[in-house]
Amino acid sequence: MVDSLLAIGEKAVKLAEKLGADQAEAYLAQSRSFEIEAENNAIKAASESRDVGIGIRTIIDKKIGFAYVTTLQRSDVEEAVEHSISLARASIPDPAFHSLPDSLSKYHNAMGLFDKQIHDLTAEATAELVIRVIDATKEVLDGQDYAIEAGVQSSSSVNAIINSLGIAKTEPRTSISLYSYPILKHDDDQTASYEYQISRRLDEIDPEWVGKSAGELTIGFLHPKIIEGGEMPVIFAPLGASAILGRGFADAVNAEEVQMGRSYIADAFGERIASENLEIVDDGLLPSGIGSRSFDAEGYPSHQTSVIEGGVLKSLLHNSYTANKDCVDNTGNASRPSYSGLPSISTTNFIVSPRNGDMNTFISELDKGVVCRNTGDRPNMTTGDLSAMIIEGYYVENGEIKHPLKNTLIGINMRDLLKRISHIGNDSRTTYSMVTPSIVIEHANITSG
Fold first, then answer.
1. Are 211 and 340 found together in one domain?
2. Residues 284, 394: one domain?
3. How far apart are CA 57 and CA 343, in angstroms?
């Protein structure tokens, strides 16, 4: 199928050039995913989905057209090319558009992206993973009033990118994720928590760890309490750090957001914006990384980009359009949700470099403060102001967790948060496209009630 994807893409690009395109690009994808959701001992839903299609981008006199079809039949692909050409002719020229990327750059293969075990995973073997995670959760919650939701999703895909400047790349990838979400009732209290794993390798998934951890976390969040607010330190567990830095900072270094004036660090390139302890890289070649790929969604080679070094903002994340607009090197961060969309910008593997200690160490050294395991909030990306609800967290006093938190908020500006990072742990974990350890913020405004 890899060879046929390239052949179909090459024919589409040649047809676009024949019809008058100055430049043309074909992005093709074929995927198969399998998903099972269960509740207690019963399978609630099981589905297999297959998707295939091609997106065609054409450029005529700096005018851009785009069309896609959810098939690779020759007549449908040709119709999509013709539609893209007609849209390009009818569009308004974009003076900031320079060129699609070419094939002159050096490529390196990202390792560990495809696992045949995931590709060949059967429905029975997938269901067994869910049963194991539920059994492990039940073992922790035995004798209590609970319900458990659990699920697994596996995916196997092939992407191909071909353009009129010589790029012709294709790559297979697999991934699998597994979660447990128990809900626990105790007296007049009800609480819930979750745990999950995601990997490109089946042998890195541990259903027993996921289930046991989810059960223990849920018990630990029973009977939350409000606290007296004020300025106090905050420990972000890896999930919390991922939420804050992944949604709250990674989007801020998106070059498109900066160019549009929608980022709170728009005026800070080359300046020290964070603690000297903070080092962040975006690494598209991390072995087996969830965000790893040998090339981005425009076919440009992936590599490692230093975003923050010694607290200094060293680079934004670019695709070909934003890099050409700023006259800087492309960082290979073009992304697409699928063949049905134009390239945007996203991280690959956004990695906070680990240092010393872990969350337990940081708790033991804390006189008074809070732990944020997770939050679903993100800052105002223009101002950087953050008001984040601690979805799961704890109050700490004299080096010990006293109780879980209820209705507690963290208030801080992201520029201040970055500068107040006092400790960075070595307990890194992968949370989708981010890899981060626990981090400690010297102080933030905590409100509760």
1. no
2. yes
3. 10
Decide if 428 contacts 238 (C-beta within 8 A): yes
In a domain, 166, yes or no: no
133 domain-assigned: yes
Q: Does a structural domain hold residue 408? A: yes
Neighbours of 209 (CB within 10 A): 14
- 399 vs 275: CA distance, rounded Å: 24
Q: pLDDT-based confidence at 279, cuts 50/70/90?
A: very high
268 and 372 in a single domain? The answer is yes
Q: Note the pLDDT tens digit of each residue in 38-96.
A: 998 789 999 999 999 999 999 999 999 999 999 999 999 999 999 999 999 999 999 99
Same domain (yes/no): 188, 326: no
| Pair 305, 282: CB distance under 8 Å | yes
Distances (CA, A) of 55 to 69, 173, 299: 7, 19, 14
Domains held by the chain: number: 2
Q: Are strands 304-309 and 280-283 parallel, antiparallel or unpaired?
A: antiparallel
Asked if residue 269 and residue 135 are part of one domain, the reply reads no
Instruction: Write out the DSSP string of 333-346.
Output: -EE-SSTTS--EE-
Q: How many residues does the chain have?
A: 449
Cα Rg of the chain, angstroms: 24
pLDDT (0 to 100) of residue 1 = 57
CATH number, domain containing residue 121: 3.30.2290.10
**Do residues 302 and 202 both lie within one domain?**
no
Range of the domain at 363: 230-448
CB distance 6 to 162 below 8 Å: yes
Q: Could you give the C-alpha distances from 76 to 54, 88, 150, 211, in angstroms and in order?
A: 10, 18, 40, 46
Q: 201 with 236, same domain?
A: no
For residues 139 and 215, give the distance between their C-alpha atoms in angstroms, rounded to a whole number: 8
In this structure, what token pair is assigned to residue 306? 């230093």
Indicate if the pLDDT at residue 2 is higher than 70. no
Question: Is 14 among the domain residues?
Answer: no
Enter the tokens of residue 97: 């558009």
The pTM assigned to this predicted structure is: 0.95
The string of pLDDT tens digits covering residues 86-116 is 999 999 999 999 999 999 889 999 999 999 9
Q: How far apart (Å, rounded) are the C-alpha atoms in residues 267 and 218?
A: 43
Strand-pairing partners, residue 335, are 344
Q: Are residues 182 and 329 in the same domain?
A: no
CB 381 within 8 A of CB 264: yes
- Partners of 180 in beta bridges: 150, 195
3-state SS assignment for residue 174: strand
